Amino acid sequence: MTQKITDTIKDSSGEITHYILDNGEKLEKSEGVNRAKNGEIEGVIVAHSRKGEEYLRTKPDGNEGNNLSSL
Q1: Weakest-pLDDT range from 10-14, 28-32, 42-46, 56-60
Q2: What are the structural domain ranges in the chain?
Q3: Region 39-56: what's the mean pLDDT?
Q4: Which of 52, 19, 49 is nearest to 36 (CA)?
């Protein structure tokens, strides 16, 4: 069964460090990326930062209110 990200935890600089799933589970960024790659988290894609780090982004839908950075 796939899960959805409903919230995030950010560090003092505003970078997402954890993802909160709809079942209440808290995942570190790397675990969230791994689960998304395995198709266990819906509505997200794996992206790469300029530093080469993998992270999750919401699939584009024209609604900025549901972007992970807005949660």
Answers
A1: 56-60
A2: 5-70
A3: 93
A4: 19
SS (H, E, C) 4-56: CEEEEEECCCCCEEEEEECCCCEEEHHHHHHHHHCCCECCEEEEECCCCCEEE
Say if residues 27 and 19 touch (Cβ distance below 8 Å): yes
Question: Per the structure block, which two tokens stand in for 70?
Answer: 């807005």
Question: How far is it, in rounded angstroms, from Cα 26 to Cα 29?
Answer: 10
Torsion of CA 49, 42, 58, 8, to 10 degrees: -80
- Residue in the structure block whose two tokens are 């699939």: 59
Which bin fits 3, alpha (ψ -120 to 50), beta or left (φ > 0)?
A: beta
